[in-house]
Design a protein that fits this description.
Blueprint (H helix, E strand, L loop, with lengths): L1 H16 L3 H12 L4 H4 L12 H37 L18 H15 L3 E2 L5 E3 H4 L24 E3 L4 H11 L4 E10 L11 E11 L4 H16 L5 E8 L2 E12 L5 E12 L1 H6 L8 E8 H9 L12 H4 L8
Parallel strand pairs: 1-4
Antiparallel strand pairs: 2-3, 4-5, 5-9, 6-7, 7-8, 8-9
Helix pairs in contact: 1-4, 2-4, 5-10
Length: 337
């Protein structure tokens, strides 16, 4: 016990006189490390009688705790001294400019979506949204694509089970909105993400963004559809862009058209890229949506947002939109359209 008292006096004296963190760590190693003087005291237990061992072991452990606390307190004091000395040496120039915080930007695909939303809202349309995990009934059957319809192959998708799938277009939103409207006129656009089992290449992706439009009323004709498509194309690409409308087939519209927009290829020649399909709403779709096709008519269209962005921003590969490369995305900072 006398040796313990002497060791305690020596270690406390060493801690008190330590002026640096390095010197303080030397004290710790000397006394508390595995081979330190205090740690080695436990080896003395074998030389003590059974009656003396408990009291001696408890005293050694208490000494370890006291030394550890003293080391921690001294370390905090030295660190405080170092901090105050550092602050005394440093001067702050309050006229220096502050840190520059870099803000994010709107993704180019969202820029296109928001631009078109603004356009169509100004034309009296409303925004409608729906689930991406959809029921086969809304995705296909209400779009005049009954079970085993061959046209389903064009929209092969990812199935959860036989009735639940990832939607292949935003048309299910149109179907749901028609049912909710209960036979009343409507005028909507439906933006959102869709999925198809396409091979990824410069112009295709297994997931992509789409905006569909639907107008139903008593006096809707193909002329109304053409007017809406021309306004959208001119808004996006300007009066000088060449646009091509050609007949097509969609199960949910009749008659149907596709709209192509010209672009300049890398070799300098002119090519066309399809940006949307459209047509007059099929009578069967009107019936399933709760409308009398003898009274009501309508038109619908579906726009590929990536296709528009490729043309608008002269992007050469659709995959750039999904790789999260800041070098690509930073090009669109400040571009609000």
């Amino acid at each position: 016990m006398k040796d313990l008292a002497m060791i305690k006096k020596a270690v406390m004296n060493s801690i008190e006189h330590a002026k640096t963190l390095e010197a303080l760590d030397d004290v710790r190693v000397k006394y508390l490390s595995k081979k330190g003087e205090i740690s080695q005291l436990m080896s003395e237990l074998k030389n003590l009688s059974p009656e003396e061992r408990p009291a001696f072991g408890a005293r050694v452990n208490m000494l370890k705790q006291e030394v550890g606390d003293a080391l921690a307190k001294k370390k905090e004091a030295i660190e405080d001294q170092l901090l105050m000395a550092s602050l005394a040496r440093e001067e702050m120039d309050v006229t220096l400019p502050g840190y520059q915080f870099y803000s994010g930007s709107i993704h180019p695909l969202n820029q296109v979506i928001e631009d078109l939303e603004d356009l169509f809202i100004g034309m009296g349309y409303k925004i409608a949204e729906g689930p991406e995990v959809e029921n086969d009934y809304y995705n296909f059957e209400m779009m005049n694509l009954e079970k085993d319809h061959p046209a389903r192959d064009m929209q092969d998708t990812f199935y959860i089970n036989e009735e639940i799938l990832l939607r292949t277009h935003t048309s299910p939103v149109q179907a749901r909105t028609m049912l909710q409207s209960q036979g009343k006129p409507l005028k909507i656009i439906c933006p959102g993400k869709v999925y198809r089992r396409d091979d990824d290449d410069p112009t295709h992706s297994h997931q992509f963004q789409q905006i569909e439009g639907l107008v139903i009323d008593k006096t809707i004709s193909l002329a109304n559809l053409k007017d809406a498509l021309l306004k959208m194309a001119r808004h996006l690409f300007g009066e000088n862009r060449e646009i091509r409308l050609r007949p097509s087939y969609f199960p949910f519209t009749e008659p149907s058209v596709e709209v192509d927009v010209s672009y300049i290829k890398k070799d300098g020649t002119t090519g066309y890229i399809e940006i949307l399909g459209a047509g007059m709403v099929h009578p069967n779709v009107l019936k399933m949506g709760g409308y009398d096709p003898e009274v009501y008519s309508g038109f619908a269209f579906g726009v590929g947002v990536e296709r528009i962005a490729i043309l608008k921003y002269q992007i050469d590969d659709i995959r750039h939109f999904y790789t999260n490369d800041l070098r690509f995305l930073n090009q669109f900072k400040g571009d609000v359209r």
